[in-house]
Amino acid sequence: MSYDLIIIGAGPAGLTAAIYAKRALLKCLILEKSLAGGKLNKTADVDNYPGFISIKGPELAEKMTEHTKYYEVDWKQEEVSKLEKKGEEFGVSTNEGNTFTGKTIIIASGAIENKLGIKGEREFTNLGVSYCAICDGFLFRGKDVAVVGGGYSALETSLYMSNVASKIYLIHRRTDFRAEKEILATAKSNSKIIFLLNSVVTEIQGNEAVEKIIVNNSTDNKDSELIVNAVFPCIGLSPFSNFAHELGICDQQNYIAIADDCSTKIPGLFAAGDVARANEKKIKQIVTAIAEGAIAAQSAIKYLEKV
């Protein structure tokens, strides 16, 4: 079956794109392999979404899904295995053996946070282990916390938490950071941020919530115990973009490179949300994903008007 627009992924970006597309009377299909709402379904509380002082992540996902389905969007719970250009259109194949054709595509398949892979991480997720300081940082006001990573997001998270927490241990396995000198200098000049270099977190411990971590220093191979109430792993994301690799639209980290209008280098192909990257400083929030979903949909609408 052929569509004006196929949206791959039903997180906040994909759902928003579908709303805008249907309001423009496009024939639209959403392909989502799992639950609609994306990472919202794994988020305990959302306290920074306008209109709701506090709302459970799954509840917000349900409300967004209901809003989208109000417009009678075609919906298939199938996992995309391949995206290819077929003449003037695109072919989308799924693991279920189906193939769909679209004049335009919006990739909004999301990304997942890389895990430390250590004991206690899974057990204490949402109980002190958080992958979003902007979402959960306020819960640890006046507490000591740990940030793990050596890139821009780790430094940004440490600086953000310095406005909230009492002390921040920034733990990095090497001595060099993959970030601009300016933000590194700012972090180093912050008295609340303590740098623990050549170090890795090997275990997260606690009873009902995070209470401490074990840190190994690779220089002398000695373990130390740090009393903290939160751990923020900032070791990157893994975008769900494997199905699009052959199109040559991904960067070295497998993010889909987009322009300000959410277009890729292939006409008619757009991307939005966590799977897309316009620049290193893009913050990954519900509201920014929604904004990109709207922009991508409008760009697709304008593209279709010209062809």
From TrEMBL:
GO terms for cellular component: cytoplasm. The keyword Secreted does not apply. Its EC number is 1.8.1.9. One of its GO terms (molecular function) is thioredoxin-disulfide reductase (NADPH) activity. Its cofactor is FAD. It holds the Pfam family Pyr_redox_2. Keywords: FAD, Flavoprotein, Oxidoreductase, Redox-active center. Residues 3-293 form the FAD/NAD(P)-binding domain. It catalyses: [thioredoxin]-dithiol + NADP(+) = [thioredoxin]-disulfide + NADPH + H(+). GO terms for biological process: removal of superoxide radicals. Homodimer. Belongs to the class-II pyridine nucleotide-disulfide oxidoreductase family. This is Thioredoxin reductase.
